[in-house]
Design brief:
Blueprint (H helix, E strand, L loop, with lengths): L7 H11 L28 H9 L5 E3 L10 H6 L8 H4 L4 E2 L11 E2 H4 L18 H18 L7 H7 L13 H10 L52 E3 L3 H11 L2 E8 L5 E6 L6 E14 L5 E6 L11 E5 L10 E4 L8 E5 L4 E4 L2
Parallel strand pairs: 2-4, 6-9
Antiparallel strand pairs: 1-6, 3-7, 4-10, 5-7, 5-10, 7-8, 8-9, 11-12
């Protein structure tokens, strides 16, 4: 009887014939289901990794015992890396923004100083024990852009997006798709954080709490009395990707504000303290989403991106980190998404006689 198994020589022949596309990694964001579970009960912070980084002649960054992950196991660390690989069919109809090369950009840029009146840009949040980075990155960028374009300092609700987007965005605390978060903003909007906070003030039943991290239930009801859910919604005009060329990413940030980026996280990233990160050692852990707020070049001539993480200020450089710019390190330039804030629902009441509107903030 003929075997259904393909011989190794034939398999190699087919791969060669298919060209380099067949052997190239298709996507930097790993599928969490394919990641090994070996060693998941061990601590994510390892002295050996710190020593390896700090003794490496060309590392370019410093590793340390980050307090934020002092008690985290490898399994817990993997869980908070909540970016799932976006299905290709989803990306087919997502517009991609590019910018003319004639656009002049500064050699260094920091959104915190460029729009110093926007308090949210410099706010470092904490996602807790939930794989909600995909939601945090999106909400943070949208609220920053409301301030940049409409001069509105508002805090928007990660919990609304996390709990109510449902399967369209992925699996809540078990990970999601950044571009679908922005599509949720277009279709459904997102309420203020005051209306639907991520952390409860008492009782601690939201996803940042120990020991469990279930996806919250979508209640569509403000926690504050006399606030109406639908009236507290803030929307995005659109949802788009930014071309992976560094010039296009820089131009987008320079003109419109911070963007959400997804990248692959390795074990050594948990140990980042300062400097310009590049992967040196350790296995692949998962996909993570953060907020890109600027760029620059070190005194040594190394180009970098400046990003805000959501692991509180006890991690990294006061909650921020830098990563090499221009080489697509860990896929950092490959999955950049954003959208523009909308005026929809911003005016709740309109007095036709006086022509005075009341803005929702």
């Amino acid at each position: 009887m003929q075997s259904n198994k393909m011989s190794m020589p034939l398999l190699l022949l087919l791969l060669v014939a298919a060209g380099p596309q067949a052997t190239r990694a298709a996507k930097p964001i790993p599928n969490r289901q394919l990641m090994t579970e070996e060693g998941d009960s061990s601590r994510i912070i390892q002295d050996d990794i710190i020593k390896t980084i700090n003794k490496h002649a060309n590392a370019g960054w410093t590793a340390a015992q980050n307090p934020y992950f002092a008690n985290y196991t490898t399994a817990q660390f993997k869980h908070i890396l909540g970016v799932k690989p976006t299905p290709h069919n989803v990306l087919n109809d997502v517009p991609v923004k590019t910018y003319p090369r004639s656009l002049m950009l500064p050699k260094e840029f920091d959104a915190r100083s460029a729009w110093s009146h926007c308090n949210t840009i410099g706010t470092i949040l904490g996602q807790g024990h939930c794989g909600s980075c995909w939601a945090f990155g999106a909400v943070e960028c949208l609220q920053d852009r409301f301030c940049i374009h409409f001069n509105m300092n508002i805090s928007l609700s990660v919990n609304d997006l996390l709990a109510c987007c449902g399967f369209m965005c992925g699996d809540g605390c078990d990970g999601g798709y950044p571009i679908m978060a922005w599509r949720y903003f277009v279709r459904n909007g997102v309420v203020t954080d005051e209306c639907d906070p991520y952390f409860d003030q008492v009782g601690c039943k939201h996803p940042g709490c120990e020991p469990a991290y279930p996806t919250p239930v979508c209640e569509k009801k403000c926690k504050v009395q006399n606030q109406v859910w639908l009236e507290k919604k803030h929307f995005s005009v659109n949802a788009y990707r930014v071309n992976s060329d560094p010039h296009d990413i820089m131009a987008e940030v320079y003109q419109n504000g911070p963007v959400e980026v997804a990248f692959t996280v390795y074990e050594d990233f948990a140990h980042y303290k300062s400097g310009v990160y590049k992967h040196i050692t350790g296995g692949m852990m998962g996909g993570h989403a953060v907020k890109l707020i600027g760029w620059g070049t070190t005194d040594a001539g190394e180009d970098y991106w400046l990003l805000a993480n959501q692991w509180n200020r006890g991690w990294g450089d006061d909650g921020y980190f830098k990563i090499i710019r221009g080489t697509n390190e860990c896929g950092i330039e490959e999955d950049v998404v954003a959208g523009m804030p909308s005026t929809k629902n911003m005016v709740r009441n309109y007095d036709s006689a006086s022509g005075v509107g009341t803005a929702i903030v």
